[in-house]
Amino acid sequence: MESITIQDYAIHFKSECYKALNSYLDTSNFSKMFVLVDTNTHQHCLSYFLSQINAPQNIEIIEIEAGEANKTIDTCTGVWNALSELSGDRKSLIINLGGGVVTDLGGFVASCFKRGIKFINVPTSLLAMVDASVGGKTGVDLGTLKNQIGVMSFSEMVLVDTKYLETLPQNEMRSGLAEMLKHGLIQDEAYWHKMTDLSQFTLDDLDQLIYESILIKKNVVTQDPNENGLRKTLNYGHTLGHAIESYCLSNPKKETLLHGEAIAIGMVLATYISYKQLNFPEAKLHQIKQTIRDMYGLVELTNGDYQEIIELLKFDKKNTHGNINFVLLEDIGTCKIDCKVENSLILEAFAYYKA
Ligand code: GLY
């Protein structure tokens, strides 16, 4: 598979990725190399990764606890302390080996340590392969509020090796699929249709779908790297999705949802709102809802939950001048950004999701 270049960095695939990494490491003269893992990737991914590296004996391992609840500034402080104690300096490199929490947090840690050191992303979850590790967004949560602290900072390269998906739990796979469905909805109806019937697909087909998903994201971020307009469309389903995710994270009585599971609900809600507000075609709305219900089931939310979720919208990162800005669809592949939505319509959308 041919490498994909976005701005200054390349995304390498399959066996090519370790050739590219080893040649980069051989010619870069880093003073120290660190691999950041979480407890899961330490167990399932690290030894395979190190077996692909020419000089693994020169690498220090730093581990964080797995899970969104650990995507915090406290965890960053722990990693900065470890880097400092292990004599990390300005010529050090961090390789982030993990899912979205590790690549977002590790990129942020690298961007601030000694005012910025280089980093490489090796995503091990589907979600990190098609979304989190690509496009330069790094950061952490503020309490349970998603991605409130962070900087745009680009990795030196991204290595996509789907071998890591062999040990990924089913719910994590589904979480990643949500971002791929989103890429179809915002940019490419043919890709959306392919994603809605995965029953006949093999692992090789998955490689191709991941590749196409990254191309869709590349198309968006190269046109608008700083999210002044078009890139906002990558937040389709995320305004309510992030609020639902934060709400469930902060509420011990609710089952914790993975990012993609919350975004899947957010996409049904945003599509209903699009239908009411922008005449999105009704038949496609029902098909999108059915596809998402078949893949993710129904998450139990009550009227009381809806009000608290709506309250959380005021923390959305796309808000400006006190306005909540939704991304909506006129049709599959045609987005409208910065849309204002009445709370009453949001409540109607929740009722539609539940019906
Ligand atoms: N995950 C959305 C973006 O990278 O813009």
How is this structure best summarized?
The chain is of the alpha/beta class and 355 residues long. The chain is built from 14 helices and eleven strands. Strands 4-3-5-6 form a four-stranded parallel beta sheet. The chain has a three-stranded mixed beta sheet with strand order 1-2-9. A two-stranded antiparallel ribbon has the order 7-8.
Could you describe the 3D structure shown?
The model has no long low-confidence stretch (mean pLDDT 95). The chain is globular. The N and C termini lie far apart (43 Å). The chain is built from 14 helices and eleven strands. It is an alpha/beta fold. Glycine is lined by residues 131, 135, 137, 231, 234.
Write the element-wise H/E pattern from the N-terminal end onward: EEHEHHEHEHEHEEEHHHHHHHEEH
What is the CATH C level class of the largest domain, in words? Mainly Alpha
The CATH homologous superfamily of the largest domain is called Dehydroquinate synthase-like - alpha domain
**What quaternary form is this?**
single chain
Which small-molecule species are bound to the chains here? glycine
Low-confidence runs:
none
Number of helices in the DSSP assignment: 14
- What is the overall silhouette? globular
Strand content: 15-25%
Structural class: alpha/beta
Largest sheet: 4 strands, parallel
Cα(first) to Cα(last) distance is: 43 Å
Mean pLDDT: 95
Q: Do you know the CATH topology of the largest domain?
A: Dehydroquinate synthase-like, alpha domain
Strand order of the largest sheet: 4-3-5-6
CATH architecture classification of the largest domain: Up-down Bundle
Q: What does the radius of gyration come to? A: 20 Å
Domains (count):
2
